[in-house]
Amino acid sequence: MNVIEVKKLTKTYNDSEVKVHAVQGIDLEIQEGEFTAIVGPSGCGKTTFLNMLGGLDQPTEGNIRIGDTMVHDLKPSELIDFRLHNIGFVFQAYNLIPVLTAKENVEFIMQLQGKSKEERDKRAISLLTEVGLGDRVDARPSRLSGGQQQRVAVARALASKPKFVLADEPTANLDSTSTETLLDIMEKLNREENITFIFSTHDARVVNKARRVIQLEDGKIIKDERKA
């Protein structure tokens, strides 16, 4: 079953009267439960591509279908609601809310969804326990290491029960131990709960864990390999 299907996806920027083709006519299908790394040199279009998949950026041309929804056709208010209920995000910079505890950061998405306090509490604690932070639920980000903050970010991404998770360079600011721990957690969630993960990355450790590797160059797919 395809979670994502894109056709002729293109993003062009006008930079001082020069057109920059960040993404050029990509055709791609991502199936449910895939653990996929999108790789390539800086400026190849990885982040732009992920941002379009997540509805954070609009394509210049082409179609994006997620499930039964044509995402590129949604109005801004519809797109916000669609992201809230279907897509989990993990960013390089963590993007946690500093004044909230780990548990409150995870609960925040569910609060926007209108979930009850009881449901929010239960799921937040369960997810934080799953990522190895059951004893740090009341800690604010400033009291957590970089690796722990990124694990909170993963728990937050999963809180809404999304169809898939987009992770943009999630290990870039982490040391080797934190990276291995984070990747093991995400791989476990992928295999046991069939959560679809799509990474943009320069990190060879992420690439080694991925079961599908898509290589971009100059905004185009030049290699798409599934591992045995």
TrEMBL record:
<dbReference type="InterPro" id="IPR017871">
    <property type="entry name" value="ABC_transporter-like_CS"/>
</dbReference>
<dbReference type="Pfam" id="PF00005">
    <property type="entry name" value="ABC_tran"/>
</dbReference>
<feature type="domain" description="ABC transporter">
    <location>
        <begin position="4"/>
        <end position="228"/>
    </location>
</feature>
<dbReference type="InterPro" id="IPR015854">
    <property type="entry name" value="ABC_transpr_LolD-like"/>
</dbReference>
<keyword id="KW-0547">Nucleotide-binding</keyword>
<dbReference type="InterPro" id="IPR017911">
    <property type="entry name" value="MacB-like_ATP-bd"/>
</dbReference>
<keyword id="KW-0813">Transport</keyword>
<protein>
    <submittedName>
        <fullName>ABC transporter ATP-binding protein</fullName>
    </submittedName>
</protein>
<dbReference type="InterPro" id="IPR027417">
    <property type="entry name" value="P-loop_NTPase"/>
</dbReference>
<dbReference type="InterPro" id="IPR003439">
    <property type="entry name" value="ABC_transporter-like_ATP-bd"/>
</dbReference>
<dbReference type="InterPro" id="IPR003593">
    <property type="entry name" value="AAA+_ATPase"/>
</dbReference>
<dbReference type="GO" id="GO:0005524">
    <property type="term" value="F:ATP binding"/>
</dbReference>
<keyword id="KW-0067">ATP-binding</keyword>
